[in-house]
Amino acid sequence: MTETDSTMPLKKRRVFVTAVGKLCLPVASFLFGNLSPKWVTRWAKIFYVLAWPFTCRPRKIARANLSIAFPESNNKQYNILVKKNLQYIFELGLDWLHFLSHPSDINQRLLLSSEIDAFRQSRAKDSSLPPTIFCTLHLGNWELASHVSYISGRKGAVVAARFTVEWFNELAAKMRTAETDTVLLPVQGAARGMLRALKEGRDLGILIDQHVSPKRGGVFLNFFGLPVTTSLLPATIALRQRIPIMIVACHKQPDGNFGMDMECLPKPTEQYASAAELTQDILHGYERLIRRYPEQYLWLYRYWRVCPANAPQELFQRYPFYARQYDDRTCDETLFQPPSPSP
């Protein structure tokens, strides 16, 4: 069978998914795109009940991840958090439908924290301040977090992975750039795109709470007490360009609006000895935000999917059921020690 023949079923599937999606989106937007925040929450609970029989594996992954992040919790607490988390995923989807139908509502429903408001005012007073790299995570409505540059008074650029279905990319682009002048940078060749954006005076936004293979530059660092592989790219660029890094997240509030959180690192960029040290502090900042809004984090993702080859057996046993151990990828043994409390 030729390569062309082997890829035909996949191409047909993508065409089919695109056609079904384009057909269903107007219907879904009509039915659910105009819901009030209260009804968004109610419908999310209904969808959770309807989908419950089909969520066995997602619930298993979420519970395994929660047991790593919150080892002090009990089974009842895990079950409650898993339920709230899956309900929030449906709520997130309904919010996306609303904002795709009403993009002008995005900036109206974004509420600035005092830290971001002070940051915005300092930029307004001094236009010579350098661009900033904003590291965000899969918490709350992470697509709306890409608007932080716009609301803080600067042009922005966001590093974004592409879906295999082009139609999904079009929808995601609308969400990330609606009512702003933000540009999207592909993950492939991201470093060049990020440097070019910085020369244009743009802020940069990037997600790094994802597994990155060591073959693609991933480095083992500590995340909730276990080594995970992550990207050093934003920290490397920040050190070379001598620009600040800040952590941002966009959490949903009980009234249906979205609060934009900002966290500064413990020390300025230039005081870090390496990109690994800087990135480790970013992950500690992520941990603080996740503990603040645990039900809004993407616990369905397999963060701890690989364990370093030199990890002792007792450490590997702490990894979730879906993890495997590398045959040839090791890490610094200091990561095997219990982590010090996050600052």
Would you summarize the structure shown here?
This protein is α/β, with parallel strands linked by helices and 343 residues long. Helix content is 46%, strand content 15%. The chain is built from twelve helices and eleven strands.
Provide an overview of this structure.
- With 343 residues, the protein is α/β, with parallel strands linked by helices.
- It has two domains: 3-101, no CATH class; 109-336, no CATH class.
- It has helices at 3-32, 37-51, 56-69, 75-101, 105-108, 114-125, 148-151, 166-177, 190-199, 233-241, 275-292, 313-316, and strands at 110-112, 133-136, 156-160, 183-186, 203-207, 219-223, 226-230, 245-252, 258-264, 306-307, 324-325.
- Strands 1-9-8-2-5-3-4 form a seven-stranded mixed beta sheet, with helices on both faces.
- The longest helix is centred in the first third of the chain and has 30 residues, at 3-32.
- The mean pLDDT is 89.
Key descriptive features of the protein:
343 residues, alpha/beta, 2 domains, 7-stranded mixed sheet, two-stranded antiparallel ribbon, 46% helix
